[in-house]
Amino acid sequence: MKYIFNTSGDYVAFVYGTNLFTPSGDWLGFILNGNEVFSSTDSSFLGRVSSDDRIVRNLLDGARLRPLRPLRPLRPLIPLRPLRRLRMYRLNFPWVDVFEP
Closest by alpha carbon to 97, among 58, 40, 44? Predict the structure, then answer.
């Protein structure tokens, strides 16, 4: 299991196996190729899991083929809420944090 944060340091999701869930356990998406995140609703590309535990997207990336959506996983056990992180460095263009408002 891996916790996902936004640039502000807020806990926004967690990865369990090859799936991404909200802190309350709702399925957000699935992960292919080790770090590519796709939406659970329409298999659209959301971004990549970065080494600093954020989901980031390159705005200059072209369109991607949408993979077949896997079956909905079982609802996982909700992990303990992690401590808030310090604010992370701001991403430079063309990278954006998917969970940063």
Answer: 58
